[in-house]
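Take a record:
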Amino acid sequence: MQLTIPIPESQKAVRLPPGTIDGGEEEFFRFCQANHELRIERSAQGEIIVMLPAGGYASFQNNAVASQLYVWAQKDGSGIAFDSSAGFLLPNGAMRSPDAAWVPLARLRELTQDEKQRFLPLCPDFVVEVASPSDSIASLREKMEEYRAAGVRLGWLIMPESRQVEVYTPTGIEIVTSPQSLSGGSVLPGFTLELSPVWNPPF
């Protein structure tokens, strides 16, 4: 199923009402696969959210985060790092695609082969969202709370324009201003995210 969805320049995203795709998970998966060039999520209420493609800075910043996580995960070996192309089905029915995520191997090995081929039916232990100029901070905060309610152990909302990071854990939220790095703590032992390329892209 392929749709042509014009996004007016003044809008940050197009929101398609619940019922736009009414064939269940299979049809929604095929819709996302057929429109892979778009950034698509689904809310817990069934609303389909089609977001603007990332601009140059946002793409670089997202990659700077995801690549550092990937390198650490490869060395650590206890889990798998995912970039923004991965979809996760949360317990509340939402399908979200964080900019970077990490899941322990033990949890992934509990899934069937078919589940691994599709949107993963779980909430990652660790997620990162990097705010771009086209993102609504309020919407990103709602997503972070959604991850927290679904059981995420650590989440970072990185806001390059204000140079702030909101750190989400099961016990609360901490705001950090202009950190040079972030530690994965007990969730990602030994992982340190260097934020210099996020705060100061080299172009």
